[in-house]
Amino acid sequence: MAESVEYFKKHKPYSGLKIVHNNHLTLSSICKLAPLLLSGASLTITVTDSLQASPDVIEILHEHGVNITKINDLKDDFDILLDCGAGLANIVHPRIGAIEQTQSGKVIFEKQNRYPVISVDESYVKKLETLYGTGDGFKRAFNCLVKEDLAGKKFVVFGYGKVGHGIVRELKKMQCSPIIIIEMDNEALNRARLENFQALSINEDLGSIKKHLKEAFCVITATGVPGVVSKYFSRQDISDGYKVNMGTEDEFGENFLAEDVLANKKPLNFILEEPTLVEFLDPIFYAHNAAIDLLLTKKFAAGFHSLPLDFDLNILLRWSKFHKTDVSEIYQFI
Questions:
Q1: What is the pLDDT of residues 278-321, one digit of tens each?
Q2: Same domain, yes or no, for 213 and 106?
Q3: How many domains does the chain have?
Q4: Do 141 and 259 fall within a single domain?
């Protein structure tokens, strides 16, 4: 994003454009807004109800003469829509196109064909956040609350998609052992077994799973399925050890009290001031902003489009080089 600030400040590439930006307002998001504010565009910033809006960030923006527009005050008069969760999909109809950041927004925008929509979610760049960033956030939050040496402790992890993989990656670094992975997807089960984990099918191995749950130091959910644990297990089936939800919604479900689960069933990394460090958000912020250039320079038909692969890989490899990080494991998630 630092590169964008300098370039936008000098060249004002979006002069004459009307852009509306609907996204979380956190300390990290200031990095995303800075280049847009210097781009020469007429920028309107708003936050729909489902998004985070830090009062401190709003105050910082106000101190610099940047106001937040209420949804009801928006006029449908924009060239570009930068959206998160498709919060403005039924309110703003951009003349040039929209860029969506999330999976939930993708589901909504896929149904419209009035203008081009580019999805940042369906990209390798997005996996930097879900695979590395969320795993790192789990580690930092868990270590804040649990002041114990985790080496040799037994963890049971429900879900071995991108988020689960990232969490297990951090558990391995902390020498947690054994790590038991619970899945219903055969591809994920096979991948876990190839990586030398004990992986059990929730559809076939309930007896073995219950034994591991009784012995677990910690049980973690990262399936993306609300209430999945209660569908198969009772409160008595799981040890009194730590329980962690890393899903957006409560994955333990109705059989478990809020106080049974760290952070009262909310995603554990949300207890942190920075749930995801800016180094993992930076490439996504960059892609979300820079996709404006794609809408301006390439001819996209009305309807839904993934981020072009060459554009996506260019950002990923630049991030990998800058942070000296091997990102090869990301390629198995697409």
A1: 999 999 999 999 999 999 999 899 999 999 999 999 999 999 99
A2: no
A3: 2
A4: yes
